[in-house]
TrEMBL record:
Entry annotated with the keyword Cell cycle: no
Protein name: Alpha/beta hydrolase
Domain Alpha/beta hydrolase fold-3: 85-169
Organism: Acetilactobacillus jinshanensis
PANTHER family reported in the protein's UniProt record: ALPHA_BETA HYDROLASE FOLD-3 DOMAIN-CONTAINING PROTEIN (PTHR23024:SF24), ARYLACETAMIDE DEACETYLASE (PTHR23024)
Domain of life of the source: Bacteria
Length: 330
């Protein structure tokens, strides 16, 4: 059942984009990104001996799209490990747990359980499909914690690009009871300690239409009319929030989104870290951190893992102030 009571009583078809130009651009982006990802990951080993993988697990009713993978370091002792829930990106029209598998295995090697899930994609599945699937994926983690060794008292969220939007939504409703009640969000019995926003898309009203026709096939005009408050979820980011690491890249075409998020967090005195990777001499682009052959991406990933490990040493991260967070150096 959708968190939005009207989501499934209202036909999904009525929320889909009716802009053929945007749909065509989204379909072309899908093909272009798929080609680039195949080149990037060529030669990488999908079944390394140092990682235990559980793949193609069903977390929801859609047997094609509601699938989830679990990664665990093979040298880990029997028992629970801190959990990272990865929310993949690629404009809500492309991307999958397979696209992010090498990135997730890198995270797992640092001593974490990592889950990565597929969600239904636009243009066929507009908002709130990916959001509904995200909630189901988290609930699956709760139900299967014992089986796979998830430590639900030490959970972290990572979102890339469009996935950072999902992560923003989840952390906002998780920490804001007023927003949770407004959007019928049921907080699960887990303790989220912090999150990472990689090259995120946050302020939807700033990117739709001509600026970004790809995301406009998920947050369609019809969606913005029916769910205006949720499209502006950034209005509900208030203290207490959770510590987040906001990163972007020197040549990220969405860099202003991360800059705005940094400023919003500053304005609300929410402890966070903000960093731009790359330079004029060594530029990096949107979602560079996935590339396991890139030393700058490797440094970024390790910085974020270091951020998580330092948060693990804190008992109540929601009570951190800016001075205390500044001690969590990277």
């Amino acid at each position: 059942m959708s968190v939005f009571k009207r989501s499934y009583t209202m036909r999904i078809a009525s929320l889909r984009s009716n802009n053929p130009k945007n749909i065509k651009i989204a379909e072309q982006a899908h093909e272009n990104w798929k080609h680039a990802d195949n080149i990037r990951d060529q030669g990488l080993n999908p079944k390394p001996k140092d990682i235990i993988k559980h793949t193609n697990l069903e977390y929801g009713p859609d047997k094609k799209h509601n699938l989830i993978d679990v990664y665990r370091p093979a040298n880990a002792k029997i028992g629970k490990l801190p959990l990272i829930i990865d929310m993949h990106g690629k404009g809500f029209v492309y991307g999958s747990r397979k696209t992010y598998q090498f990135y997730c295995m890198h995270l797992a090697r640092a001593g974490f359980e990592v889950v990565s899930y597929d969600y239904r994609l636009a243009p066929k599945y507009p908002f709130p499909c990916a959001w509904d699937d995200t909630q189901m994926a988290v609930r699956w983690c709760v139900k299967n914690a014992y089986r796979y060794g998830f430590d639900l008292q030490h959970v972290f969220i990572i979102g890339d690009s469009a996935g950072a939007n999902l992560a923003e939504e989840y952390l906002t409703l998780y920490t804001n009871p007023i927003a949770a009640a407004k959007f019928d969000f049921k907080r699960p019995p887990i303790n989220i300690m912090g999150g990472v926003f990689n090259c995120g898309v946050f302020f939807i009203n700033k990117i739709l239409g001509y600026v970004n026709p790809v995301e406009s096939t998920y947050y369609t005009h019809q969606v913005t009319q029916h769910y205006p408050d949720f499209v502006h979820i950034d209005n509900y980011i208030k203290r207490p929030f959770l510590p987040v690491f906001v990163q972007t890249a020197s040549d990220d075409d969405m860099i202003n989104q991360s800059f705005r998020m940094d400023q919003l967090l500053i304005d609300h005195e929410i402890p966070h870290l903000y960093k731009i990777y790359g330079s004029d001499d060594f530029p990096r682009e949107h979602d560079f951190q996935i590339d396991q052959s890139d030393p700058i991406a490797d440094r970024c990933d390790d910085d974020e893992l270091s951020f998580f490990k330092r948060l693990l040493k804190r008992e109540n991260v929601q009570n951190l102030n800016e001075k205390q967070l500044s001690q969590i150096t990277i």
